[in-house]
């Protein structure tokens, strides 16, 4: 299994500013992902964080708005840039452990409110 | 990835077995069935997954029909802590390993 922590757990930000969310895994993992969960809705995948190369973004998400870094096998960051109230969501990091079982583990999420 | 269909909500009495159905009629031969749950204000939690055989672990059992077009997640003795949204997801295990979440089933355990 893998234990995932995220910082910050929550934040209130002003529109036009940026916030960087950190995701730390307690063991080496193969793949890391970033999801968004808007109020009352299901999870939507933003991107796959690739170690040592540019992230792979899903349709509707772009690097300029959500730059992602993954400098090593246990750490990733997601930045929400030039925020607007529509960016108010929970942002979740997940990681997939190596091996045959292909289980994904999720962090507790970062609750972002943009005013 | 194949699309899944789940009931929007279900209730179950505490101590009884909770049976959560999922339809995945367009599932491909190389796609697995995964179940996750999300308890309020927490990240999703892996429960179980399977390809075609029934699976059981300490949390639940997964029953997959022979034609693999539907499955049922069984929580054998539901407790209040099992109240959550349960997601059924189909996914290949190699090549495209992202999870695509649907709307899930909101399970409420009644005391």
Topology:
The complex is a heterodimer of chains A (115) and B (111).
Chain A: E1 4-7, E2 10-13, E3 19-25, E4 31-37, E5 43-49, E6 56-57, E7 68-72, E8 75-80, E9 89-96, E10 104-106, E11 110-114
Parallel strand pairs in A: 2-11
Antiparallel strand pairs in A: 1-3, 3-8, 4-5, 4-9, 5-6, 7-8, 9-10, 9-11
Chain B: E1 9-13, E2 18-23, E3 31-38, E4 45-50, E5 55-56, E6 61-64, E7 70-75, E8 84-92, E9 105-110
Parallel strand pairs in B: 1-9
Antiparallel strand pairs in B: 2-7, 3-4, 3-8, 5-6, 6-7, 8-9
Structure explained in plain terms:
Chain A has strands at 4-7, 10-13, 19-25, 31-37, 43-49, 56-57, 68-72, 75-80, 89-96, 104-106, 110-114. Chain A is mainly β. In chain A, strands 2, 4, 5, 6, 9, 10 and 11 form a seven-stranded mixed sheet that branches. In chain A, strands 1-3-8-7 form a four-stranded antiparallel sheet, with no helix packed on it. In chain B, 0% of the residues lie in helices and 47% in strands. Chain B has no helices and nine strands. Chain B has strands at 9-13, 18-23, 31-38, 45-50, 55-56, 61-64, 70-75, 84-92, 105-110. In chain B, the strands form two sheets. A five-stranded mixed sheet of chain B has the order 1-9-8-3-4, with no helix packed on it. The chains are: A mainly beta (115), B mainly beta (111). Chains A and B meet through strand 4, strand 5, strand 9 and strand 10 of A and strand 4 of B.
């Amino acid at each position: 299994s893998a234990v995932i922590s995220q910082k910050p757990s929550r934040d209130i930000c002003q529109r036009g500013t940026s916030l960087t969310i950190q995701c730390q895994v307690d063991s080496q993992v193969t793949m890391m992902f970033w999801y968004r969960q808007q109020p009352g809705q299901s999870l939507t995948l933003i991107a796959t964080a690739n170690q040592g190369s540019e992230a792979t973004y899903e349709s509707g998400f772009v690097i300029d708005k959500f730059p992602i870094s993954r400098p090593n096998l246990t750490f990733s960051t997601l930045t929400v840039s030039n925020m607007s109230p529509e960016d108010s969501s929970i942002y979740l990091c997940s990681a997939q452990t190596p091996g045959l079982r292909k289980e994904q583990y999720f962090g507790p999420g970062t609750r972002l409110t943009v005013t | 990835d194949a699309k899944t269909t789940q009931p929007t909500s279900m209730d179950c009495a505490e101590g009884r077995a909770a049976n959560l159905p999922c339809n995945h009629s367009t599932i491909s031969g190389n796609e697995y069935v995964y179940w996750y749950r999300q308890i309020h204000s927490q990240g999703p939690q892996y429960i179980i997954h399977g390809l075609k055989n029934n699976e059981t672990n300490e949390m639940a059992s997964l029953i997959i029909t022979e034609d693999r077009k539907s499955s049922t997640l069984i929580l054998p003795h539901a407790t209040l802590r099992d109240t959550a949204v349960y997601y059924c997801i189909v996914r290949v295990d190699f090549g495209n390993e992202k999870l695509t979440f649907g709307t899930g089933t909101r399970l409420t355990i009644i005391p």
